[in-house]
Amino acid sequence: AQLREFCYENVNGILPALFAAICGKERPLPVEKIRVEPKWTQSCKARRRFNDRQRRWLESIQAALMRSDRFQLIDSSSRGEVARDELEGMPPQEFAEVMTGISVEGPDEGSNFPHQVQLRIFPSMRSFRNLDPDSEATFVILPLTEELAGELNLRKL
Hints:
The protein has about 160 residues and is of the alpha/beta class. The protein is about 35% helix and about 20% strand. The chain contains six helices and eight strands. The chain has a four-stranded mixed β-sheet. A two-stranded parallel ribbon has the order 3-6.
């Protein structure tokens, strides 16, 4: 009996063997369905990076699957069932994401805060030179706003 379907959890461990089975023989493996089910990680913030050889292997696997008469779909935990028609026009980067089974999420949407630098100020040169350790320090937040300048009685010279 021939192998019609197989499943793996980590593309790194199986990629050389998968390339050899699907692309490296005179008669490629007549697989109909590939299931990708990662065990630990389902999503991450950055794409998986492949070296040049791994990228060539993935491109060759994609081309061999498109040439196969029996191949139907890849069931990936990141994208669900991806039919042969979708795979045919899929860019290599998306195909690699389907084969890893890990979905890539964008960075978290956080609040953007303007730059704030606190700068200690002194009311006069004399208070700067004769620094009193008991006196309370005054800080200005840069960039300086008109409101803050008015509160501290600061004026342009």
